[in-house]
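agent> Task received from the user: take the single chain below, predict its 3D structure, and emit structure tokens. No templates, no multimer pairing.
agent> Plan: (1) validate residues, (2) run structure prediction, (3) serialize to tokens, (4) report one or two observations.
agent> Step 1 OK, no nonstandard residues flagged.
tool_call: predict_structure(input=
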Amino acid sequence: SETYQKPHNQQVHLGDATHVPEQVSHIITAIVTEPFLGRPKPKPEQVPDIFRGLEKLYLGAFKNWKTFLPNGAPVTIVFPHTTVKDVEFNMDHLIDKLLPLGYTTVSGPLKYSRPDAIVSRSIYTFILKK
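)
tool_result: status=success, residues=130
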């Protein structure tokens, strides 16, 4: 068998997801990110506030991305989830807010965690429709 390679011109940019610099925003066609997931070992009573803060942070990022991503752009992101005293904390409420912004879930959640992890990960991919 033969191996085929297409020429490519991808670049990776590291930065604050809520404030993408103008000099790169016009060339970004996709986003793949594992944002801040909160404190690694939060106290149970802190979890509700942490998740409210993360939801606000992530919503701000999605709103910012919409200003420069092209129609059909994929966004793959890792969201935290955890269970405290039989109460599940996740980003379902945020996901509901993304549809009116034009983001449609195309895959996820793909859940990942280590056996001893307090906060686990849920990986989602969205497509932006403008």
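agent> Step 4: summary for the user.
The chain has one domain: 22-128.
agent> Done.
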